[in-house]
Amino acid sequence: MTATTEHLDVLIIGAGLSGVGAAHHLQSAFPGRTYAILEAREAIGGTWDLFRYPGVRSDSDMHTLGYRFRPWTQAKAIADGPAILRYIRDTAAEAGIDRRVRFGHRVVRADWSTPDARWTVEAVHDGETVRLTTNFLYVCSGYYRYDGGYAPDLPGIERFGGTVIHPQHWPENLDYTGKKVVVIGSGATAVTLVPAMADRAAHVTMLQRSPTYILSLPAEDPIANRLRRVLGAGRAYAIVRWKNVAMSTLIYQLSRRRPHVMRSLLRKAAIRQLPPGYQVDTHFKPRYQPWDQRLCFVPDGDLFAAITRGRASVVTDRIAEFTEAGLRLESGAELEADVVVTATGLRLLALGGLRLAVDGRAVTLPETMAYRGMMLSGVPNFAFTVGYTNASWTLKADLVSEYVVRLLRYLDAHGYDQCVPINDDPAVTERPLLDFQAGYVLRSIDEFPKSGSRAPWHMGMSYAHDLLKLRHGRIEDGAMRFSRRPASQEAARQPA
């Protein structure tokens, strides 16, 4: 059964960090414009509602992960998941955005009609198809697949007599007190889980195939806390936001331009925080260069502290097979375990699995090119949010929202109904949308749109550059084309 079609000026998909931010920008700029947020799950928060594993937190500081329009006022700059979730939900509640969210609506298809200059969007709700139309479609669903993480083949895992958990599906009442825990992985989730579980578990072992670069940051930013007392929340937030953007940019640029210097700095920092004689080069010296994959940040060096106290350890080896009591490694060593956590990574899903069509023709995402990293070539009145891989997600999400507002104002001011990026420059060559060597990206990047070799098709990773282009750059740049609905169609849609 299909419900009656309803029309909205703008339709946002996803009520997570990006979707709530997009709604705030939209309703602040256009208080009279109708919009709704369709959310597949039953709660606001996206990633921060989905992940419930011990110690879940951001590895970005909240002065940049927080919204530009809403200062982060808590003392901890590296915040835990529940605090971030409250921040998102408080933002939604204070602006009335929570009343615009329609939960349990999984969007499956969207069809653009050029004669009507509108999208017809289909969502599944309680087993029924709900159909809506909208002038502008804005996808804020991120790129994680929510129904399951990456699960590599683990030989003999069916023989294991203990408990196996993937962090994306953490059991609410799991008791690991006094138990031997093995966490398989070395990324952000693993380095978060190990110290978080170490205080209750008998021992936690992080089993990694290869090391990851890890840098300790203070959980509290003393400059931010001092400035907040002196200048107030708003002014302090703006200053600290730029300070942290500058620091993260410096670390990234140093990593890319002087990788040997950054490698040395990271190695020396690890040596200072680990016990004397610890095998740093075995467990904390990756084969790749810094920022070929995302740098992992640990607040107050909690991972190093857990290792120093003897509550946790790192083993760098490969799994030969599971046994009933644990794991046998390729080196011949055995790890006993009561609980195994497979922090083996995420799976990506472009546009939340949404299928697009333009004038009856299906859109094949890998055949499109991303315009400014936020729209698709040949797809009208459509935007999506993908954050930075080398900085906080929200820095880019805020800029995308600001650009969408500018674009809608431009359409209004010139009487246009449609905007569509067109790539007709033969000099533009294709590149991956995310030029990033992390396993979760490499496994799925071929299913995503392409990036281009030059502006405005290049997917940049510089906040300062994007700020100039998205907040202040020209809307009509030659690649973005505008048009009006035919007069006959406009007349047909007017009420009698």
Automatic annotation (TrEMBL):
Tell me the Pfam families matching this sequence. Answer: FMO-like, NAD_binding_8
Query: Where on the tree of life does the source sit, at the highest rank?
Result: Bacteria
> What Enzyme Commission number(s) appear in the record?
1.14.13.-
The enzyme class is oxidoreductase
* Record bears the keyword Plastid: no
One GO MF term on file is: oxidoreductase activity
* The keyword Flavoprotein belongs to this UniProt entry's keyword annotation: yes
Q: What InterPro entries does its record include? A: FAD-binding_MO (IPR051820), FAD/NAD-bd_sf (IPR036188), Flavin_mOase-like (IPR020946)
Which cofactors does this protein require?
FAD
Q: Which Gene3D superfamilies match?
A: FAD/NAD(P)-binding domain (3.50.50.60)
State the UniProt keywords alphabetically. Answer: FAD, Flavoprotein, Monooxygenase, Oxidoreductase
List the signal peptide residues: none
Its family remark reads:
Belongs to the FAD-binding monooxygenase family.
Q: What's this protein's name?
A: NAD(P)/FAD-dependent oxidoreductase
